Amino acid sequence: MVDEEALDDASEEMPSDKVADLVEYIVCGLVDDEDAVSLDVTDGEEGSLIEVSCAEEDAGRIIGRRGRTIKAIRTLARALGQRVGTSVEVEVLG
């Protein structure tokens, strides 16, 4: 017999998944090589870490001049994270 309640719990999204979806949507709009973009989400007690991996030539587009673009992405991610109840950090790996 299948425990339906356990299945519902397993299929629920983590709050950090919503934030990761937003970050992925923004990043894919910025880069040339969308296939090279991947996100690694690590959930911990203090919050979530989203590591964005991309092609080396696209890392500069994500970071932006003087870090303005990544700062804006982090601001949006933190705002959504606060709304869904989690602390979020975003890092770019070239």
- The share of residues in helices is 40-55%
- Unreliable stretches (pLDDT < 50, length at least 5) are none
Number of DSSP strand runs:
3
Strand content: 15-25%
What is the CATH topology assignment?
GMP Synthetase, Chain A, domain 3
Question: How many distinct domains?
Answer: 1
Q: Identify the overall geometry.
A: globular
Helix-strand topology string: HHEEHHE
The CATH class label is Alpha Beta
Largest beta-sheet details: 3 strands, mixed
Strand order of the main beta sheet, please? Answer: 1-2-3
What's the end-to-end separation, in Å? 47 Å
CA-atom Rg in angstroms: 15 Å
**CATH homology-level superfamily:** K homology (KH) domain
- The helix count comes to 4
**What's the pLDDT, averaged over the residues?**
87
Protein name: RNA-binding protein KhpA
Main location: cytoplasm
Function: A probable RNA-binding protein.
Subcellular location: Cytoplasm
List the helices and strands and how they pair.
Blueprint lengths: L3 H8 L3 H16 L7 E6 L4 E6 L2 H8 L4 H17 L3 E6 L1
Parallel strand pairs: 2-3
Antiparallel strand pairs: 1-2
Main location: cytoplasm
Subcellular location: Cytoplasm
Keywords: Cytoplasm, RNA-binding
